[in-house]
Design a protein that fits this description.
Length: 169
């Protein structure tokens, strides 16, 4: 399938929660060559989750389509510690952790994940990036990363506890 062809599938996901609150999420999938665009709609807000089939491709999207192995990513981790890492080292680290992503604005998450990524790692990543989309947004990058990391940690904790409670561990 080339980039001009798309295959769109839709599904409704309905959840009845014990609180009695009814939520509906509309999900659409579009297969666009080497990436998949998933559109999730909940309470009138659409969030695209765009997945790439290699670490290099998600990094190319992050860098705007141009990069070398020696280009450098600068930022801070979820603890507020700054880092500087080449794209080659970043790609190697992504393969070890099984996933990596970034958000663009309040409506897109771009990510790569391996086929055998640990589910709690992927849940952490998605919640972390979703956390960047939620208010309050911090202008100081380290504070924003620490905020987003709290979302990721909370989601991973909930997933791990649920697995234990359901007897899956």
């Amino acid at each position: 399938m080339n980039e001009t062809q798309t295959n769109i599938k839709s599904a409704n996901v309905e959840n009845n929660h014990s609180s009695g609150r009814y939520l509906q999420t509309m999900v659409r999938f579009a297969f666009l060559g080497d990436k998949v665009e998933n559109i999730f709609e909940k309470d009138g807000q659409q969030i695209k989750v765009i997945t790439y089939d290699t670490p290099k491709k998600v990094l190319l999207e992050y860098f705007g389509g141009e990069m070398t192995d020696e280009d450098e990513l600068c930022g801070c981790d979820g603890n507020g510690e700054e880092y500087h890492i080449t794209t080659k080292d970043m790609s190697d680290n992504m393969k070890m952790s099984g996933c990596w992503g970034f958000c663009r604005g309040k409506s897109e998450i771009h990510l790569w994940h391996s086929k055998d990524v640990d589910m709690s790692e992927l849940i952490h990543l998605l919640a972390h990036e979703r956390g960047h989309m939620l208010n309050p947004l911090h202008r100081i990058h380290t504070k924003e990363e620490i905020k987003a990391e709290k979302y990721g940690d909370a989601a991973r904790f909930a997933y791990d506890v649920a697995k234990i409670l359901m007897g899956q561990i």
